[in-house]
From TrEMBL:
Protein's recorded name: Uncharacterized protein
Skewed-composition ranges (Basic and acidic residues): 452-461
Segments forming domain YvlB/LiaX N-terminal: 2-30
UniProt KW keywords: Coiled coil
């Protein structure tokens, strides 16, 4: 195989581009021209010439065979890696789908609507995820080995190709080719700079001359259906049960005898039902009678923002459970209120209740006004703010500030935060005893009859007055501030 055939073979194998091959052929032609002008070499006998040809062709043949074998091994390793990547992608997709269904089933369990079949389905999904996770770990290890093997084979091919070039063209061809390619790169770079400048000027002209208020850009995404619907129900129910996977829920009272639900609904993905409303109803559980009002939307492919109007009456029990959404109460009256939200705020205004209990993960809690006897407000990441007249309070957060303003006598106040401040304001006439302590912060007091030293970490309270309020406030890394209620 002569030099020209060698270059063409490297182009076929993808080692050289056509431009690089042209440069090398041009340099080869120049070398041949220079060689023809030199004195003729001594004559060589036919026998010697054949021996030399065989000696030259033997290394070329060995190099070609080695390169072919390397290319075969690289193709095999690359195909195996692609297959492993496809399996990993499929497993990750299946695990995500199973996790989504498990969350829906967990939501149904919170609503006490999880049947035996669904319970078994959830167990099967969890077991399947464990099996998939183990397989995923095996494939990940195999993926790493294949990547290392492929990288090693590619290094071997580069070394073999480089040695082949050196044996054919010597060492000077690299400098010549590099100079030519550098000139080509400079020319291409100048052209690219000119094109980029033209494109930028064109874009600037478009931006300056188009009224973007009149332009609507459609971004491809998940198919959605949006619609609004009003549900109206008759009944004298005093037990309210609401569950929504995605969406905000607002409870408000009104003067009408029946219930009304204004719903703004989004359906994500294609659904087989004929109409959006039918698809929503198929993925919801709605039941209203003289005892219960049940409105549950546990499917995560449905977002339902609900405004629920409740007839003015005293409700025995109200339960609201949300995964992703905020809850708002406005002028509602009842006995026992329970709210659980994973991601969302809780805002309570003018609530009359015997007890309000909340459990949150990510979201703040705010209670203003009303007449609530017992407050149990717990969250993980969020602030708690109370400005009301409760008798007993249990306020807890991990990452957040607690602000409590009590407007009258109270019985007990327990407030704690791990990474946040605790602020308590009480009427100056109210009796208070108990303690306030912090580990890394300080306790400060501007409360009448309660003094604290600078950088004090523990403070005992014993102030006379009306009632018999007991407080126990604590924080780990925050500051505790005690003061009187600001005069109106």
């Amino acid at each position: 195989m002569n030099e020209r055939e060698r270059i063409l073979d490297l182009v076929k194998q993808g080692v050289l581009t056509s431009e690089e091959a042209l440069v090398l052929l041009e340099n080869l032609a120049k070398a041949n021209t220079d060689g023809s002008s030199k004195p003729a070499a001594p004559a060589v006998s036919p026998t010697d010439a054949d021996s030399d040809d065989d000696a030259e062709q033997q290394p070329d043949h060995d190099a070609d065979a080695a390169l072919t074998e390397l290319n075969t091994r690289i193709a095999t390793a690359s195909g195996s890696l692609d297959a492993v990547n496809a399996q990993l992608s499929q497993i990750a997709h299946q695990i995500a789908a199973n996790d989504e269904q498990i969350i829906v089933l967990d939501t149904m369990e919170d609503l006490d609507t999880l049947s035996a079949e669904k319970y078994e389905e959830r167990g099967q999904l969890k077991r399947e995820n464990q099996t998939l996770a183990a397989r995923q770990e095996e494939l990940t290890a195999q993926q790493g080995k294949l990547k290392d093997e492929l990288a090693d084979l590619q290094r071997q091919r580069r070394r073999l190709t480089k040695s082949g070039f050196s044996s054919v063209f010597g060492e000077d061809w690299q400098n010549s080719a590099k100079g030519t390619l550098n000139d080509l790169g400079k020319t291409v770079g100048d052209a690219a700079s000119q094109v980029g400048s033209i494109v930028k000027q064109t874009v600037d002209t478009v931006m300056d001359n188009i009224d973007w208020k009149d332009v609507t850009v459609r971004v491809p995404g998940v198919a959605t259906e949006k619609f609004s619907h009003t549900f109206e129900f008759d009944g004298a129910a005093t037990i309210i049960d609401v569950k929504v996977a995605n969406g905000d829920v607002t409870f408000a009272s009104w003067d009408q005898p029946g219930f009304k639900v204004d719903a703004n609904i989004k359906l994500f993905g294609k659904m087989p039902e004929a109409t959006p409303l039918t698809a929503f109803e198929a993925r919801s559980h709605i039941e209203v009678n003289d005892a219960h009002f049940v409105f549950q939307v546990p499917n995560r492919r449905v977002q339902a923002d609900l405004t629920i109007y409740l007839p003015k009456r005293e409700y025995d029990h109200l339960s609201a459970r949300l995964l992703n959404g905020s809850v708002t109460f406005t002028d509602v009256s009842g006995k026992d209120f329970y709210v659980k939200s994973t991601n969302g705020e809780l805002t309570v205004t003018g609530l009359t209740a015997t007890m309000l209990e909340t459990e949150g993960v990510n979201g703040s809690i705010k209670v203003t006004g009303g007449n609530i006897h017992d407050l149990l407000l717990h969250t993980v990441n969020g602030d708690i703010k109370v400005n009301a007249t409760p008798q007993t309070l249990d306020l807890q957060t991990v990452n957040g500030t607690i602000r409590t303003t009590l407007l009258s006598d109270f019985q007990t106040l327990t407030a704690s935060s791990v990474n946040g401040n605790v602020k308590v304001a009480l009427p100056a006439s109210v009796a208070v005893s108990g303690e306030a302590k912090t580990r890394f912060g300080s306790v400060k007091s501007r409360m009448t009859g309660v003094t604290s030293e600078k950088d004090h970490k523990h403070l005992s309270l014993d102030r006379p007055g009306t009632g018999s309020g007991v407080i126990n406030v604590a924080t780990t890394s925050g500051t505790i501030q005690l003061k009187d209620v600001d005069p109106e």
